[in-house]
Design a protein that fits this description.
Blueprint: H1 2-30, H2 34-51, H3 57-76, H4 81-101, H5 111-121
Helix pairs in contact: 1-2, 1-5, 3-4
GO cellular component, one term: microtubule
Keywords: Cytoplasm, Cytoskeleton, Microtubule
Protein name: Gamma tubulin complex component C-terminal domain-containing protein
Length: 122
């Protein structure tokens, strides 16, 4: 569970946000109008939300289920660890399946997204 959380956070920060932020900074240096700035900001936010899996309802639900399970386990320890692990593995597989169904291939998503899917399976 810690591995999933670390990999997801690392993916979002280093593979998604950082390169897009650097691209936005470069764009902002060249822009002349407020409208262009707003369009660049909107593109940045759209790209980050999409690649952090925050725009597709099935992915949000799958990721949310995993985070909820981790939170419940961390706060309560109500379920025995082996039952939590079984449920976690199932939820993780569901997330990867949703990623696959929504087009986790090099043509429609960046390669970092695919690497993230492989990391969470390990």
């Amino acid at each position: 569970m810690l591995s999933f959380t670390s990999n997801y956070l690392s993916y979002c920060c280093t593979e998604v946000i950082k390169p897009r932020w650097e691209r936005l900074e470069k764009e902002l240096k060249e822009l002349r109008s407020v409208e262009d700035v707003l369009m660049a900001q909107s593109r940045f936010l759209d790209d980050v939300n999409k690649d952090c899996m925050l725009t597709d309802a099935p992915l949000i639900n799958a990721t949310g289920d995993i985070v909820q399970l981790i939170t419940e386990f961390a706060l309560n320890h109500l379920m025995p660890y082996d039952k939590v692990q079984v449920k976690f593995d199932r939820l993780k597989s569901d997330l990867v399946e949703q990623m696959r169904l929504l087009g986790a291939d090099p043509v429609t998503r960046n390669t970092a997204w695919i690497h993230f899917a492989h990391k969470i399976l390990s």
